[in-house]
Write a structure and sequence with these properties.
Strand order of the largest sheet: 1-2-3
Distance between the termini: 58 Å
Radius of gyration: 25 Å
Helix content: 25-40%
Order of helices and strands: HHHEEEEE
Number of strands: 5
Oligomer: single chain
Strand content: 15-25%
Largest sheet: 3 strands, antiparallel
Number of domains: 2
Bound molecules: zinc ion
Shape: elongated
Amino acid sequence: MSRNPRENFILGGFICIAFGAFFTLTEVYTLASTVGVLGVALFIFGMSLRSNLAMSEEAVRSWRPGEGQLPDAGRVMYRVDVTIDEPIESTIVCGPCGKVTVRSGTKPTAFTCHHCNIVLWNHEEE
Ligand SMILES: [Zn+2]
């Protein structure tokens, strides 16, 4: 109960709202409104607490895809992840050698892996 108070309060709130709806159906209005209001209060209180489960901003920022070779589908495979928040960074996973390259800015028009010198893509010619 104490490990993730936020989730428990939200869960409690949902259960109370469900009960409130149930009592409304059975026409026990007084009880329904009491439990329903308690449920909403618990829910709001739960939402206001900081979640212990949420990833910290730092953890999101420092997240990197794991290194590892991508399956060979008959052509050069790669994976590009671009951050949504500033600073904008592109993380490129090279399929042939599985190395990760991090560079600032969005996905470049052409990229050659520094580790194995394979051209992963080149859109400049198109
Ligand atoms: Zn490579």
